[in-house]
Amino acid sequence: MDPKLLEILVCPLCKGPLVHRKDELICKADRLAFPLRDGIPVMLEEEARRLAETEEIA
């Protein structure tokens, strides 16, 4: 993931920062993981997966 792109991308729900982890962009505030498909972030709420309460966010 290009670091410059990560600097300008925000969570579509809360407009908060995102963290890159494996093949996902994580919003810590909303506990959502947005997928990366072929290196392209899919920033749609309906495509995001909800993180489990026990799942650690780095």
Mean pLDDT across all residues, rounded?
93
The major pleated sheet works out as:
5 strands, antiparallel
CATH arch. level architecture: Single Sheet
Strand and helix order: HEEEEE
| Uncertain ranges | none
The number of distinct helices, counting runs of at least 4 residues, comes to 1
Work out the count of structural domains.
Answer: 1
The coarse overall form would be globular
**SSE-based structural type:** mainly beta
- What's the total count of β strands? 5
Query: What gap, in angstroms, lies between the N and C termini?
Result: 16 Å
- The Rg value, from CA coordinates, equals 10 Å
- Oligomerization state of this entry? single chain
Here the CATH topology equals N-terminal domain of TfIIb
Measured as a percent range, the helix fraction is 10-25%
For the record, the CATH class is: Mainly Beta
Please report which band the strand proportion falls in: under 5%, 5-15%, 15-25%, 25-35%, 35-45% or over 45%: 25-35%
Summarize the structure.
With 58 residues, this protein is mostly beta strands. It has one helix at residues 3-8; strands at residues 19-21, 24-27, 32-37, 40-41, 49-50. Strands 1, 2, 3, 4 and 5 form a five-stranded antiparallel beta sheet that branches.
